[in-house]
What does this fold into?
Amino acid sequence: MMLQKPIVLQDIEAVDIEYYKSMKYIMDTDDPEALESLDLTFTSETDVYGQKVEYELKPGGKNIKVTNENKKEFIE
It folds into this structure.
């Protein structure tokens, strides 16, 4: 970020190995049922003062399921 370059998946590996492994699994799997079982949508949850807050990664993201076709966009 300090170099004003886009962050890619490999950059995350040095910061949070578990998060990296999760995202790598999503990218590497070609099994639609495996992705569907994760029940992912274009949202992100974070903890704000002890409360879970959900953010949409794109407009209408809570209604967009992650699939093989859009998983690259989700990771980015």
About this structure: The helical segments are 9-13, 17-28, 32-38, 71-75. The chain has four helices and two strands. The two ends are 14 Å apart (CA to CA).
